[in-house]
Specification:
The chain has 16 helices and 25 strands. By secondary structure, the chain is α/β, with parallel strands linked by helices. Strands 2-1-11-10-12-13-14-15-16 form a 9-stranded mixed beta sheet, with helices on both faces. Strands 7-6-5-3-4-8-9 form a 7-stranded mixed beta sheet, sandwiched between helices. Bound molecules: adenosine-5'-diphosphate.
Length: about 550
């Protein structure tokens, strides 16, 4: 027998109208490429999104077609998301940090009809425009006064486009399984693959994100998603904040330590989220200028493992609570967040940090498990580590156009490519990406553990660990270090710092100093490039073994 409850569909247009009706006056603030901060509210967001939906229909955009954005986090970008998806088309966020060939590939693969772009990316688009096969025009996210002189064909001014449109638009009552958003994985191997979110998955994911043991978002919060909207949905925040009616502060293009600090203070932000590299810049800026955070209470950090020293600094120097988070584009992206369970409140500082360096507990409705190479489930004892598999209604079941073939096993589990432990209380800890783990003498060494330890050493700004071929052990770890500004920290000092904090056989065989460590378009250490760079590297321990 079926239940007798209403079949109202879960649609992102419903989030927008809810915010406008119940939190209409709540502020949305954007740092603009063109100049001063822009301010308006949820009523204006909804009204302008409806005008844009009318304009999109006028441009001939049909339900099910993709419309791309190449844009920073600003109010216009949020309007694009709600208008495109709300009318039944698909909002395709393109990561502008991808290589031109990758942008061409994904725009053609998605069959994007229009590209909505910030002024910043005009040059980038001009260089590739003639290779974009399906794009009918470019909408420049600006007003008439700032329209650039551009060779882009059919360049339309955003403000002109919506100026004459009616603010009356009836959002269609779509099936909640209708495609809503598209985001390509960064494709460290092979071509990027399209992850196609539905309205249902986005609404469920945003609801899960607001939960008290997830991001704990409320109407009284002032939230700044520093994580870009083109990086896996800004981790739900462009949906979750309107859902609760929080103040939404969109930081635009300047994400350096000083700009982020000023916005955190000026807008009295109490909750924010981004990858560790952003926080590294912020902490360096604050340390160099002897600054304090007067409003920030909580920060979600994920996308890469968060070093213990970063959590320690945020919590014990600046009084900001850190929630370490893990997820992936294919998971909308949130999978786990590290928030304490009952009984953990009174642990001492080191014991708290021991927990906080873990990626945390699943948020409902995500399921996780770890398996061995044969697919047998491993113990949740905090020691056994294996392939991390995930399942749930906010997780991909296939990539766009079937790329990559079947991605689920017989029971519907998706292999994340990560290696992890799960402890008896359900706290998951990533040991490594399966392709980055160092295989030494038949045992595994976690590159993440070594990196996190090394960045705690005074004088070290950033650390990366890769496996280097070794005649006896198969692979041994090479530690690659970027020194902090003005530091002369030596190989021996770093090794002495690490000694005794990890098993002897985990100690790096050598240390290489570099000026810069390469990062991917989403701020992760680019291990493939480092492996190429150090392909001919000979470890000092190799000779002895030969
Ligand atoms: P990309 O950023 O490359 O587009 P994703 O954002 O989907 O792709 O990356 C997902 C991967 O990032 C995860 O599978 C995991 O390896 C890594 N990752 C994300 N969060 C964390 C974390 N907190 N700790 C360690 N690794 C993480």
């Amino acid at each position: 027998m079926l239940g007798l409850m209403q079949d109202r569909q879960l649609l992102v247009s419903g989030i927008l109208e809810h915010a406008a009706l119940n939190h209409g006056e709540r502020e949305i603030v954007s740092a603009m490429t063109e100049g001063p901060m822009h301010r308006y509210n949820y009523i204006a967001l909804a009204e302008r999104s409806r005008r844009l939906a009318n304009a999109l229909s006028g441009l001939g955009v049909k339900p099910g077609q993709c419309v791309a954005t190449l844009a920073w986090n600003t109010f216009r970008h949020v309007e694009c998301w709600y208008a495109i998806a709300g009318m039944g088309a698909i909002a395709h966020t393109i990561n502008p940090r991808l290589f031109p060939e990758q942008i061409i590939y994904i725009a053609n693969h998605a069959e994007d009809q229009y590209i909505f772009t910030d002024l910043t990316f005009i040059d980038q688009l001009e260089a590739i425009a003639d290779q974009l096969e399906t794009v009918k025009g470019f909408v420049i996210l600006t007003d008439r006064d700032h329209m650039p002189d551009t060779s882009l064909k059919n360049a339309i001014c955003y403000e002109d486009l919506i100026a004459e449109e009616s603010a009356a638009f009836r959002w269609p009552e779509l099936d909640e399984n209708t495609a809503c958003g598209l985001c390509y994985t960064s494709g460290t191997t092979g071509n990027p693959k399209g992850v196609l979110y539905s309205h249902r998955s986005n609404v469920l994911h945003a609801m899960a994100a607001t939960g008290a043991d997830a991001m704990a978002l409320r109407s009284v919060d002032n939230v700044m998603p520093v994580v870009p909207m083109f990086h896996a949905n800004a981790w739900a925040l462009a949906y979750a904040v309107p859902m609760v009616g929080g103040k939404l502060v969109l930081p635009g293009r300047h994400l350096d330590g000083e700009s982020v600090y000023n916005m955190l203070e000026d807008e009295q932000i109490n909750f924010t989220a981004a990858v560790p590299t952003v926080w590294l810049m912020l902490l360096q800026h604050m340390q160099a200028n002897d600054l304090k955070l007067n409003y920030l209470k909580r920060v979600v950090i994920g996308g890469s493992a968060v070093p213990r020293s970063m959590i320690d600094t945020f919590e014990n120097v600046y009084g900001v609570e850190v929630a370490h988070a893990w997820g992936m584009t294919e998971m909308s992206p949130l999978g786990t967040l590290c928030n304490f369970k009952a009984g953990m409140e009174n642990l001492d500082k080191q014991a708290r940090l021991d927990i906080k360096v873990k990626q945390g507990r699943v948020i409902y409705p995500v399921e996780i498990k770890i398996t061995d190479d044969d697919g047998n489930e491993l113990q949740r004892d905090g020691k056994a580590f294996g392939h991390l598999l995930v399942r749930g209604p906010t997780i991909s079941k296939a990539y766009l156009k079937g790329e990559g073939g079947e991605i689920l096993d017989r029971d519907g589990w998706f292999d994340t490519g990560d290696v992890a432990t799960i402890d008896p209380l359900g706290f998951m800890q990533i040991t490594d990406r399966s392709k980055d783990v160092i295989k030494s003498g038949g045992e595994w060494i976690s590159s993440i553990d070594l990196e996190n330890l090394a960045v705690g050493c005074p004088g070290v700004a950033e650390a990366a660990v890769i496996g280097i071929a070794h005649p006896k052990w198969d692979e041994r770890p090479l530690l690659i270090i970027v020194r902090a500004d003005g530091s002369n920290v030596t190989r021996d000092e770093i090794l002495a710092y690490m000694d005794g904090k990890i098993a002897k056989w985990w100690m790096p065989d050598d240390i290489a100093f570099v000026d810069e460590i390469p990062h991917t378009a989403t701020g992760k250490i680019q291990k493939t490039t480092l492996r190429e760079q150090f392909a001919d590297y000979k470890l000092p321990t190799a000779d002895a073994a030969e």
